Amino acid sequence: MSEPSSVYTAYQGNSYLFGGNAPYVEEMYENYLANPGSVPDNWRDYFDALQNVPAVDGSNAKDVPHQPVINAFAERAKQGGTKVVVASGADSELGRKRTAVQQLIAAYRNVGARWADLDPLKRTEREKIPELDPAFYGFTDADYETVFHTGNTFFGKETMTLRELLNALRETYAGTIGAEYMYLTDQAKKRWWQQRLESIRSKPNFAADKKKHILDRVTAAEGLERFLHTKYVGQKRFSLEGGESFIASMDELIQEAGVRGVQEIVIGMAHRGRLNVLVNSLGKMPADLFAEFDHTAKEDLPSGDVKYHQGFSSDVTTRGGPVHLSLAFNPSHLEIVNPVVEGSVRARMDRRADPLGKQVLPVLVHGDAAFAGQGVVMETLALAETRGYFTGGTVHIVINNQIGFTTSDPRDSRSTLYCTDVVKMIEAPVLHVNGDDPEAVVLATQLALDYRMEFSKDVVVDIVCFRKLGHNEQDTPSLTQPLMYKKIAAHPGTRKLYADKLAAQGLGETLGDDMVKAYRAAMDAGKHTTDPVLTNFKSKYAVDWSPYLGKKWTDAADTAIPMAEWKRIAERITTVPANFTPHPLVKKVLDDRAAMGRGESNVDWGMGEHMAFASLVASGYPVRLSGEDVGRGTFTHRHSVLHDQNRERWDIGTYVPLQNVADNQAPFVVIDSILSEEAVLGFEYGYASNDPNTLVIWEAQFGDFVNGAQVVIDQFIASGEVKWGRVNGITLMLPHGYEGQGPEHSSARLERFMQLSADLNMQVVQPTTASQIFHLLRRQMVRGLRKPLIIMTPKSLLRNKDATSPLSEFTKGGFQTVIPENRELKGDKVKRVVICSGKVYYDLAKKREERGADDVAILRVEQLYPFPHKVFAAELRKYPNATELVWTQDEPQNQGAWFFVQHYIHENMLEGQKLGYSGRAASASPAVGYSHLHQEQQKSLVDGAFAKLKGFILTK
């Protein structure tokens, strides 16, 4: 190993021990002299080394008494019988070197990873790090046999020669494992890493059987890839070749997690190595995988997906008992699976009453380029320590092929030193490890799991390897990376290197070849290649989805509640503890709701929503509501979390009425999320995918902000069932409505959801009354159907008296997919039927009243998809003499529901009827930003609903 080099004087100008930090260091040292236990461990270690340094005279120097420290260390040396070099007051140079020893140790702990032996291809010389060179601190060859006090006992000795210490530091921090942890602010965690790494010098000491097992797993990883490469030439599989140690890492993680009491592991990963994990980690039958390659596998989904997107679950044996493994389905959007996995884990934790995640483990496997490049990684990490999204720490494994996902120049792949640097935002430690050292990979995995289980924090294992083939098997990466792929072509393979190493250790000359033959035989037979998979084991925590399969959206649902229950619940959610002081405005809301509960006034939107939640939790259905500002509600209509005006501590200063509905109620959880749409919605989708009994709701602050989560909607919510057969009942609340608030606060992009609607995949609804939201939310749980529910919720209607409902509409009836004309009109006198959805109905009703247009009926379509053909047709046939139909909407013509609903309306029109459109003209923007222009457009579209048909007209 070549020596890093520089000069000591350069360090003085950059070290945290010099310059502007001097007053702070001096104060810390005075505290140390008074009480060594009063300063952090790392400072105590440093000051321990100063016992022989005399005070420096000078006008700006402080007269600090060092003699007590000198005497104490001299006495310690006598008692231990160890030869320790003690600098006298006259030997300040030797005292300085004692201090420099501590600086050298600190440098290796801080930046040793940058000099570690991590690249299997050894394409470049390792970076020269001046701080790691003893000469940087003024040491010469004559100092190498000098004995120094190290200031700690982690290396097994309190005193070491400089040579011994340097070797120990290099083995620990600059071998095939490079550790990053010194940025942790918690001293206990830093000391944990120092003890675990330095006590073994980052070197595994595995028994022969353990080494053979590691070789077996690496052989399995290589064997599957080579078998597929031979049998299915040119077919995409995103080979793991070059990163085979990853399978040994997964094996260790699964087995050791079982020993530590973990009963479920949820894994999220993209394409690289996915087929290998399916077969060699989860125990998917090779014959089943081959059937997918041969196109003979059973296809029973409307769409299906490619094999390297598929999920899988199994139960495997470990030394600690059965462990359930779940590999999440994942599209090509790579890291988007991260929050989905975390949500799935949280649902499992809640089901097990496992708040610290000791029984459920999330594992996320990343590619280096995606980990550094995709924003959802940061958003998901930001959730890690928050109360509503905590999952007990995630083990991250990076398959780092050093080139990214295509053949781009690595210099363009990121702006950080390491692809893992993003995790430093949550102080997750990182173990970089050379993929050509399978034992080091296994050791790093052990350490990572131990840390996660000990501290419930995220941790990263970065396996630095290479990619033998291209991004996929149809690429030719040497076109753009000729030198790298010359080295790869000459590389014998991780399995061969490790097999030769074990043979040299006397573990069998033919051991490697025997394993290759055995694995090939298993492949030819299509047999299991992993530890026994349990085929008849079922955990008591497993979810039975069968009650939710085969249901129809037209199935009836009894969503009304008895009057007595209504009044009991209403009283509970409008009462606060005697010693609780709500804000005066909130007190008025509670008083108004109490009157609504007694039937003294109509029920508004907020009360209707609250009563839906309250009645559900009282009936045993948990409710989980999350999003930005959902506790209060963006438009201050909800007030589900009340704040005591005399106390501000969150643990004692808040009260949640919906958590106090009944003595044995189901949980009501409301979470004001971080400012994230993509990760939070992905999390909630993952939660709902593992808990069909909970009403899981994500609410956008404004409906427009759902744009930030479009990938989750496209790849999971809209298509998850037809691609993967994943049933999910997540609910989205998206405030939508044109009130002149500009382009970003008007539209939840209803048209996008309509465009994604097919195969009865989800429900798109725009309710317009308090009773409608009540019955709709209850229907989502009471009815056995589990489909995503997209609700275009209002803004101005939240306080519109016309949108309130009498109490009788809650104690009888149900959700109306179409709200019929509510005026007494003579059906045969009606000449025109105006059809609409959402807030515009109230503008139309007002305009009709002004015009006295009794020959116009107005129909509200509350459920846009699945379109309620039967109900709609029945309403339309009430007006046999109506020759004109007009669809009216607030949104521009190229947006909203018009382009999609016109075909549904045409299907139900009578002979001779014409269908026209009244709304805003097509626009590139969702809404105008000028108030006066908004008003002009709104007046024009409402007037147009009653004017002569013009423009596009559809005739039956």
UniProtKB/TrEMBL annotation:
Keywords, sorted A to Z: Oxidoreductase, Thiamine pyrophosphate
InterPro entries (UniProt xref): 2-oxogl_dehyd_N, 2oxoglutarate_DH_E1, DH_E1, KGD_C_sf, ODO-1/KGD_C, THDP-binding, Transketolase-like_Pyr-bd
- Per the UniProt entry, the Enzyme Commission number(s) are 1.2.4.2
Q: Which cofactor does it need?
A: thiamine diphosphate
Looking at the record's lineage, which domain of life comes first? Bacteria
Q: Which residues form the Transketolase-like pyrimidine-binding domain?
A: 603-800
Q: Write out the function statement from the record.
A: E1 component of the 2-oxoglutarate dehydrogenase (OGDH) complex which catalyzes the decarboxylation of 2-oxoglutarate, the first step in the conversion of 2-oxoglutarate to succinyl-CoA and CO(2).
Q: Which family does it belong to?
A: Belongs to the alpha-ketoglutarate dehydrogenase family.
Q: What is this protein called?
A: oxoglutarate dehydrogenase (succinyl-transferring)
